[in-house]
Amino acid sequence: MSGWTPTLFAGWLAGDPEVARLVEQEAARQATTLQLIASENFTSPAVLAATGSVLTNKYSEGYPGRRYYGGNQVIDEVEDLARRRATSLFGAAHANVQPHAGASANLAAYQALLEPGDTVLAMRLDHGGHLTHGSPASITSKIWRFVSYGVTPASDDPDEPGEVIDFDQVADLAKREQPSLIVAGSTAYARTIDPRPFREIADAVGARFMFDAAHPAGLIAGGVHPSPVGIADVVTFTTHKTLRGPRGAAILCGEELAKQIDASVFPGLQGGPLEHAVAAKAVAFAEAARPEFAEYAAEVVANAKALAVALGEEGFRLVSGGTDNHMLLVDLRPFDPELTGKVAQEVLDRAGITCNRNTIPDDPRSAFVTSGLRLGSAAETTAGMGEEEMRRIAGLLSRTLRHRHDERVVASIRAEVAALCAEFPPYPTLTAPGGGPAAAGAAGPG
Ligand code: DSN
Q1: Would you say residue 9 lies in a domain?
Q2: ∠238-21-422 over CA atoms, to 5°?
Q3: Global pTM?
Q4: What was the pLDDT predicted at 293?
Q5: CA 323 to CA 307: how far, in whole Å?
Q6: Range of the domain at 156
Q7: What is the domain-level CATH number for residue 418?
Q8: What whole-number distance in Å separates Cα of residue 342 and Cα of residue 358?
Q9: Is residue 370 pLDDT above 70, yes or no?
Q10: Does a structural domain hold residue 238?
Q11: Could you say which of 58, 85, 191, 241 is catalytic?
Q12: Checking DSSP bridges between strand 234-238 and strand 66-67, what pairing results, if any?
């Protein structure tokens, strides 16, 4: 893809052609292949600009008005702005915008709410939970005792397909294990997570309740998913998934927990905050407060639903029978019992369809091989794709998997994918096929 130049940075990186080439290659990959990873998105040019700003130079351990180094007058304003915009967007009393990632935000919340050895009730990794929800591979399981709930069994009844959070199990486990904390939230669950039943169960056993909103944060901000703010004691979320901001995270809580949460993030877990990322979070919070973002959030869900229906028509089974959010979990076995998630991901990559293999509930295959694929609609909706394009994507995906042993067919699908992506460039105002100048007055993707 020579001549395809992300003009925002090209000049500044001219002195380092090796890195410039890699940035250009990645920009071309993002623009010429389909981005269907459910946790990814295309940030706005304004978010990119803040992330690439001189704010990266500043050390600012502490919080606005209470820093350990001098020269933080401007940084204080930046972080205060981000905190105000976060609390206003989500209707929260307090926000900590310093967590570097979702895993750090979750660790900080646990550290604030728990003593080592305390019991936590969270979602099973192989039913959709996250590594930080107590996976044996995560430090969380070495510090705290995790007990896991899962989803109900799949059923053949189309009206009640199952594979939804088993609240009877959550209640039974809570009663038996007496956790100090109950965690809601997932990385691979395509249905709405209602925070209220979790709150009721937590109250019944005297547990605290944390909602990990990493995936639905943008849908919550856009008003198309129920907000856990004011229901959960603590809400953690990442800023780079459906929220469409920079890579990073934030924590929301009431005033009563503000000091504990802040002390847990710094000095409890992190050192100097990444204030360039904090500024970019501020930009994203403002963008997510605009009416266009609510429209975007609704389109993300409509597109995911259209993709789910079209994939069903191609012979795939959707875990839980469909989706309520930006995400789909596809069971490949009815389509082809021999096809693993690993093989599917690899051939789809060669066809320019980027997604990730994923376990499905009670997957007979390992987490490395899997029987499922996870897909998401957030990024390509940002690029401007709609339901018609989702149906085209379902067809391309299905054809790729049917013809996975024929590299000529895969190569021709790769060309079709590139043609589709060319109709929906993620950064029309920053990039120019042929290396032309960026358009003035960039308004952002979509
Ligand atoms: N890696 C993220 C995801 O893909 O959902 C979770 O940490």
Answers
A1: no
A2: 70
A3: 0.94
A4: 98
A5: 9
A6: 54-288
A7: 3.90.1150.10
A8: 9
A9: yes
A10: yes
A11: 241
A12: unpaired
At residue 431, the pLDDT reads 52
Collapsing DSSP to helix, strand or coil, 432 comes out as: strand
Q: Are the C-beta atoms of 32 and 352 separated by less than 8 Å? A: yes
Among the listed residues 32, 238, 239, 382, the single catalytic one is 238
| Residue 444's pLDDT band (cuts 50, 70, 90) | very low
Among candidate residues 267, 288, 309, the one where a domain is terminated: 288
Ligand 1 geometric centre to CA of 378 (Å): 14
Of 40, 39, 36, 13, residue with least CA distance to 25: 13
Across the strands, what pairs with 62?
A: 67
Ligand 1 centre and the CA of 217: distance in Å? Answer: 13
| Residue 446 in this model has a pLDDT that exceeds 60 | no
Asked if residue 319 and residue 214 are part of one domain, the reply reads no
**Owner of token pair 């925002």:** 8
Indicate whether 2 pLDDT > 50.
no
How many independent structural domains does the chain possess? 2
Provide the CA 223 distance to its chain's centre, in angstroms: 17
Residue 214 CA, ligand 1 centroid: distance in Å: 8
pLDDT bin (cut points 50, 70, 90) of residue 274 is: very high
CA 191 to chain centre: 15
Does a structural domain hold residue 17? no
Catalytic residue check, 68: no
DSSP H or E segment with residue 302: helix 291-313
